[in-house]
Design brief:
The protein has a domain at about 25-78. The chain has a three-stranded antiparallel beta sheet. The mean pLDDT is about 90. Helix 1 (about 25-35) packs antiparallel against helix 2 (about 40-50) and helix 2 (about 40-50) packs across helix 3. The protein has helices at about 25-35, 40-50, 55-70, and strands at about 1-5, 10-15, 20. By secondary structure, it is an alpha+beta fold. The protein is built from three helices and three strands; from the N terminus they run βββααα.
Length: about 80
């Protein structure tokens, strides 16, 4: 479960009742992931919105997805 509040994404893990606050580029990526955007789409969004290189955007996107996976905040079934 998640909500955006004043540019920050608040994610609530209902299994443990813990929450995570995500802001900046992470908030942009999280909202894209919630819309089932591919990693390629995440990379494009970061390069367009933040003016970073494709290589850096690829690394950052993969690292962000890995962090969400490590917290078990991604689901194959939505």
């Amino acid at each position: 479960m998640w909500r955006e509040i004043e540019g920050e994404v608040i994610v609530l893990d209902k299994r443990t009742w813990t929450y995570m606050g995500i802001n900046g580029s992470g908030a942009v990526l999280f909202k894209e992931i919630a819309q089932r955007t591919t990693v390629g789409g995440l990379v494009r969004r970061l390069t367009e919105d933040f003016g970073i290189s494709e290589r850096v955007a690829q690394h950052d996107s993969e690292a962000f997805v890995a962090m969400l996976e490590s917290h078990e905040l991604l689901s194959e079934h939505g």
